Amino acid sequence: MRRVVKAVDKMRCFRKRSTLPILAFLLTFLLFFNLYMDDEYVLEAERRPQGETLPPPPPPPAPPDRDAPGLRDLANSSGSINVTYRYLAGLPLARRKFLTIGLSSVRRKKGNYLVETIRSIFDRSSNAELKQIVVVVHLADFDPAWCERLVQEITRRFSHHIVAGRLLLIQAPQEYYPSLDGLKRNFNDPEDRVRFRSKQNVDYAFLLNFCANLSDFYVMLEDDVRCSRNFLTSLKKVITSREGSYWVTLEFSKLGYIGKLYRSRDLPRLAHFLLMFYQEMPCDWLLVHFRALLAQKDVIRFKPSLFQHVGYYSSYNGAENKLKDDDFEEDSVDIPDNPPASLHTSISVFESYDVARAYSSVADEYFWGKPPVTGDFFVIVFNESTKISRIKIVTGSDDRQNDVLRHGALEVGRRLAASKRGQQCTSYITLGEFKDGRVEVHDVHRRVGFDVQCVRIVVTASQQEWLIVRTISLWTAQPTAP
Q: Sheet containing 438-442: which strands, arranged edge to edge?
């Protein structure tokens, strides 16, 4: 027995003696690694000749909008955030949809608009559109009684959508949230305001993280919104028109975090970004920095707006919030199709107001050229010949009402051929003349009897005023049933 005890004591001593060198080695390695990775100015000093002045330490990190290391972190943060969600109602389907609509909601001191927002999403969508969407609601309030009452009401009103996999109610448990105490007091916001907006950033981050693999695209709404009729069809038209162009965010409302569209593949990075800077500023401000970090310099916002803010009382302390989007239209089916095309003109272009701006449905974009002369043209050449039903062209602007096309004709053509100014059609038919700077023609496909390859504006008389082509809107004809 004594031999066994002595043997055990020797083993304990051996483990202690062998562990100490290992720990010492690890500590030394970590210290060296930390010096090597973080204190680059020390290593730089060692490479300098003796007597040369040592540069000052690097400045503190820049704010998020100029933070290059933040960009590197963002690029590496493409994986999902490890959160175990509670499923309050519904389950995601295995089949990927076209669009996820995300909402985050908390208990308000006054009013509750969530049920009506969900109703608007479904009521404003056709049966064909409903098959392409999934709505995810993140109940981000930690009052279990409120959540239970709301889940019961939503389940009772929208049970068929839940069963069909079109509506999910989820919650990220409170233990996954970072501390909301002792936050930065940015922008002179009171403490409760900082706490509210910081938590909201985390709410949205967890929602985005959950939705990353449900669909091809994602649109963020707030929980007090009314939708335009057939908004999904309008979204798809815009997405199709942007094929081949780079974008991070497309905007379909000019208010807050309403109607912001993303590709689903960008959601993990956006979720990480919101978590990284959750206490710095409100979510709609962070979105501007996120877009800029991913190299989309300008806002890409479309008119008419597809979503309208309807909440009268804010979710922050029940304060009044009367904001309305004056670009909102209840019926969005009139959005043009504008098939993919190339554009060129013989008119001298002013600065960066190029021809593509007139063909875009982005708000406040237009073509601006120097005074045109007789014979100048502005031509749109479709990638594929297309059956066109309607054409509407508007020149001039509210600010420059004199910069209209005073004398011009609208033509459509076919049979492409190469020319010095690019491809042109060899045969054209005149559809109408400009009056008061605009022209609109209906039933084009019935009037011309062929699929259109080119649409051309021809200047029929010189003018001294410059020319703004504000919008070129084209609608394709729906195929007739056999």
A: 367-369, 467-476, 388-395, 438-442
| Alpha carbon distances (Å) from 107 to 78, 378, 410 | 31, 55, 56
Q: Give the strands of the sheet with 341-345, arranged side by side.
A: 341-345, 377-386, 452-459, 408-417, 424-433
CA distances from 4 to 1, 9, 12, 14, 86 (A): 5, 9, 12, 15, 54
pLDDT in tens, 215-262: 999 999 999 899 999 999 989 988 987 887 899 999 999 887 899 999
Residues 33-41, mean pLDDT to the nearest whole number: 32
Torsion of CA 229, 167, 148, 172, to 10 degrees: -110
53 phi, psi to nearest 5 deg: -70, 135
- The two tokens of residue 269 are 């990075």
Residues 184 and 298 in one domain: yes
Computed on alpha carbons and rounded to an integer, the radius of gyration of the chain in Å comes to: 30
195, part of any domain: yes
Q: List the CATH number of the domain containing 378.
A: 2.60.120.260
Task: Give strand pairing partners of 139.
Answer: 105
Query: Which of 17-26, 71-80, 146-155, 274-283 is predicted most confidently?
Result: 146-155
- pLDDT (0 to 100) of residue 462: 96
Instruction: Check: CB of residue 136 under 8 Å from CB of residue 102.
Output: yes
Same domain, 177 and 280: yes
Q: Are 478 and 390 in contact (CB under 8 A)?
A: no
**Which segment of 173-182, 205-214, 406-415 scores lowest on mean pLDDT?**
173-182
Same domain for 272 and 151 = yes
Tell how strand 388-395 and strand 438-442 pair up: antiparallel
The pLDDT tens digits for 87-106 are: 999 998 889 999 999 999 99
| Residue from 476, 307, 262 nearest 382 by CA | 476
- The count of domains in the chain is 3
If you ran DSSP here, which 8-state letter would residue 92 be given? -
Residue 51: CB partners within 8 Å, gap ≥ 6? none
171 — phi, psi (to 5°)?
A: -150, 135
Sole residue written with tokens 């959750």: 278
**Cβ count within 10 A of residue 61:** 11
Q: What span, in angstroms and rounded, lies between the C-alpha atoms of 332 and 304?
A: 7
Residue 399 CA to residue 411 CA, distance in Å, equals: 28
